[in-house]
Amino acid sequence: MPFKFSLQTLLHYRESLEHQQELRLRAANQQVARVRHLLDQMEARRQQLHSAQNHELILGTTVAELRFGLLCESELLRHQLALQQQLAVLEKARDQQREIFQQARRAREMLEGVRDQHFRLYKKQHERRQQRALDDLFLLRREYLRRS
Fold first, then answer.
1. Three-class DSSP labels, 67-116
2. From CA 61, how far away is CA 51, in angstroms rounded?
3. Which residue did the predictor score with more confidence, 59 or 89?
4. In b/e form, how buried is each residue of 11-20, taking b as 16+ CB within 10 angstroms?
5. What are the Cα distances from residue 124, in Å, to 2, 9, 32, 61, 142?
6. What are 40-46's contacts with CB under 8 Å, separation 24+?
């Protein structure tokens, strides 16, 4: 008789939940990485703007160009601040999703532990039955040889 775990359906459900939560965690990590990449790009653009402004100041520039550069920089800073706030929200959501995923993993691991325990017990009982059958066969053979 093969091993059959009575809670296999529940274990399969727990595995499915864990997989769903893992996919959600990956999506949250991707969102955080995307916003961080945007922030890095914004910072690089701001540094480029500073270099260009310094170069223009050395060569000589008009007030209108200076004001436009400052306006661009302030807009970049405003957008960067909005991205930093969005990043904080996304990181918090990612951390919450990580906790949900870890709970799902613990629930699955606990059920797998129960299954493993049941399997060890099944195996032990199966080995005992096999040994009993061998013992019975030995005794029958011995009795048969004794009578012959």
1. HHHHHHHHHHHHHHHHHHHHHHHHHHHHHHHHHHHHHHHHHHHHHHHHHH
2. 14
3. 89
4. beebeebbee
5. 13, 24, 50, 88, 27
6. 42/76, 42/79, 42/80, 42/83, 43/80, 45/76, 46/73, 46/76, 46/77, 46/80
CA-wise closest residue to 14 among 115, 141, 143: 115
The residue type of 45 is R
SS3 62: coil
Residue written as token pair 């906790």: 99
Q: Is the dihedral of CA 43, 47, 52, 53 positive or negative?
A: positive
pTM of the predicted model as reported, rounded to 2 decimal places: 0.74
Mean pLDDT of 48-53: 85
| CA gap 44, 50 in Å, rounded | 10
Task: Give per-residue pLDDT as tens, 57-68.
Answer: 788 878 788 888
- Contact between 83 and 38 (Cβ < 8 Å): yes
